[in-house]
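INFO worker-7 received task bundle
INFO bundle size: 2
INFO processing item 0
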Amino acid sequence: MYGQYKRIRNEFTGVLTGKSISYGGSLARKEATGYGLLYFTKEMLADKGIDLKDKIVLISGSGNVAIYAAEKATQLGGKVVAMSDSSGYIYDADGVKLDVIKKIKEVDRARISEYVKAVPSATFTPGCKGIWTIKADVALPCATQNEIDLQSAQALIANGVTAVAEGANMPSTPEAVAAFQSAGVLFGPAKAANAGGVATSALEMSQNSMRLSWTFEEVDAKLHDIMVNIYRNCSKTAREFGLEDNLVAGANIAGFLKVADAMLWQGVAY
């Protein structure tokens, strides 16, 4: 698509993102959604005086978002004990070996059940919803829409989950979200928590416009700051409208106000 855009328009711009590094792509783009999710989650926990270090983490999925969410969760001191794909989920009480997951999913393109062959102490369970019955501190749904229903949310709450942050698009049903909020579980909605991918696409466009190529560390640092600011904006907006700790409302209101203000400043009458 990018090659044809250049041919037709005779333009080298960042209109299409996610390109290969060799022709204008950005380092850290592959990792961005998963990394960004953890930066958001870390800030959400820190705002309540909670450290991610030594927390037990569940991550559904084993694709791009899930793998790099697991990588960053581990780097930040969390212990990821479960991951999944559409066939079922693996549980490794000692902590998921990400090198094994990466080989299975990024190299062999195989099912996650292969994990137990490499790590015999782990278990594989067919079916996906059971992953949410595992006792954990943090749950990160990174697989698919509506994967956490009310029953799954209640299981997480009963097991004392502290925080849920969405890496997939709308992975929690409205009933599940309401249950988390009623129970006082910290909840990071997808439109805020998984914004790291599109944020890094914008960083890619910036690099294209300036004819620059930033290092992985430079992009990652900018991504971190963006995700921290997104959390703070959601939290601040929710508080200003009398809805403290309701990050769903904070994200919705902050997003609406940003668009509305831009429209008004550009002459849209109301």
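INFO item 0 finished
INFO processing item 1
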Amino acid sequence: MRSEPGADRLNWCDTHCHLDAFELQADFDALIKRSIDAGVRQWIVPAVSTSAFERVLAIAQGNDGVHYALGIHPLYVKTAKTSHIDQLEAWVLTHRSDHKLLAIGEIGLDLYPGHPPIERQQWFFEQQLRLARRYELAVIVHARRAADQVFSALRRFNIRRGIIHAFNGSEQQAQALIGQGMLLGFGGSLTFEGSRRIRRLAQALPLRNMLLETDAPDIRPSWFTDQADRPNEPSELPAIAACLAALRGQSLVALHDAFAENLLRFKQLL
């Protein structure tokens, strides 16, 4: 797919990558260079806790093409304080005119075994949805094994713009979330032949409802199988895109152009 006419001129966006993660810091400048050299020149970096806000903002301010989101991840509510919602709101008020601030995120619900108490997750999620609604920001949502609960909350708070990160639900759940105005993020999981449900959805859904992401340093693609300690990074996005193009029988350029338009809609630039 890399030899496809025009593929070398594409400008991809990794719509969900944790460039502030510890695993990516030692080699950060080289990582950004590898990403740019691979054709990934835009990044959306969501915070996962209030302690990450300063670093996420610094990365956005120091790198062209980086946008960011501010939020408290459902797995981080275990140690979060209720006062952190006030802290988040203060940050949003301070930076609401910053065109690089795109969303409240990464927020949501996680029902994987060992998750924090669902009542605590739900409280933090709803408080952050209120902020998104109040300040007319999009949301970037984590919904592991919780697509129905996430949809219910989005509908209740009338949130109509956002991304469901690393979507792994059913087609019925996908359609409900799309109907609520959400874009669905797909990444390294679709590169595994055993990920049948994700691959079926990635083939079947209209491109206008999808985005691509890496979730770096996590959700490693299939070619990392023998490199368990190697962190994922944004430079892998074009290879993930090529896998998706092959699954769908579409050109890489067609995918790129559709996702670029989706991103502009997400940013409210269309």
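INFO item 1 finished
INFO post-check item 1: The chain has nine helices and eight strands.
INFO post-check item 1: The chain has a mean pLDDT of 96.
INFO worker-7 idle
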